[in-house]
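Internal QA ticket QA-208
Title: Verify multi-chain structure generation after dependency bump
Assignee: T.L.

Test input:
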Amino acid sequence: MAATRAAARPLRETIPAPAKISVALTVNGAKKQLNVAPWTSLLDALRDHLDLTGTKKGCDHGQCGACTVLVDGRRINSCLTLAVMKDGAEIVTVEGLAKDGALHPLQQAFIDHDAFQCGYCTPGQICSAVGMIAEGKAKTPDEIRELMSGNICRCAAYPNIVAAIQQAMGTP
Amino acid sequence: MINFQYARASDVSDAVRQIAADPAAKFIAGGTNLIDLMKEDVERPARLIDISRLPLRTVEETEGGGLRIGALVPNSDLAWNPKIEQRYPLLSSAILAGASAQLRNMASTGGNLLQRTRCYYFYDTATPCNKREPGSGCSAIAGVNRMHAILGTSDACIAVHPSDMCVALAALEAKVHVAGPSGERAIAFADFHRLPGDTPQRDSNLNPNEIITAIELPAKGFAANYSYLKIRDRLSYAFALVSVAAALDLEGGSIKEARLALGGVAHKPWRDPEAEAALCGQPANEAAFERAAGLLLREAKGFAHNSFKIDLARRVIVRALTQAANGTPQSQSNKKIR
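Actual output:
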């Protein structure tokens, strides 16, 4: 018996392309039906199939947090999950946070505190902060920093990001 | 990413049937490590069997007074489960020391055990690696090996197991429940992961057609005197250089029972029965902790860039045991080490 499955398929051997799979998602409140290849990440499904480009592709390896979205209310890295695995799930991206033309309190707080420079990590930072506040575990700045550590900001706007989150939490 | 087929398992026995039917298939649950490795062309399954919808998401009391954790309980849910926080805070602390909040929301309990090393050469398909391509050689032994093992290494591999959660599970003497074509069995945590020897491609003693169904914690949780102390290159969201799970059962000022498990130093969470035995019956003081550290590290061997880990491990052991003895476990949000 093979001791491991790691090298089950020889390098560069190809298999015929599998049929596309039908996936139903609720994205920002709207029902969507997609046909995707099995290897389509949730991130690519959002960006390339649904034209929701607010969610960013940073590292594509779960190391930067730019692709953070909410799946059934929980923050995850959309680059490290397959769209087919999320069939039936409810997805919220940064495009779904504003309601009736009014910014989400975290979006407003990021503007108030100038909590970004280039802005590339911002959608992920904001979605992550929405998830963190829902988790209810972060109370102090130390806890906010720790529980936001999955979102890297290469402009290093961290102090202002923490201040913005504190404003949205109502704990200055 | 590579081309593959996708299927869902309807229950545990269906999952076992499907994996046994296709030697090039792999299970996927949280996917946080597997999808990453597939993007790097390190893992090349021809079929993914999605087990994420199986009903393995509960934490239940056992007859023996312990807890049985379903293999699909997400890491974050486990860390913040009130029973884990109260009775097994060492486990909660170790989980919160690892990865990021997003990854912990995705990663499963069973998958955490099966995550693969982050050795740079394992990830780099342009270089030889015995774990990735058995027989091709180890690039780390004479290469860049700052993150690598100091205990239990072989001429074939000096990679380390990356998990924090597993270090706590080793210290707590958890059991791994698995199901396969020939039925169910339980594996003691110490026997689950392997040393590299001459088969570093095998991380664990889980057979290729088996699935992890649950992790069982024994009744004893060491909730009063424990600490998980992790030292890394940045304060959060980095793999351990050295981590120590310390748990003590104290009576008066002396040690009745001690558990000591190390992460970041070996191909599996490292325990040493002699070092733990040497603590029993001793006063809980620095001299006893230093002796235990010396015993645990007596055969430690450094390579070109990681010899610093030997002295670092000694000091982390002493500090973690001190924190445990004082009832002041390391905080995973305020990173000051006291």
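Spot checks passed. Chain A touches chain B through 48 residues (CB under 8 Å).
Status: verified.
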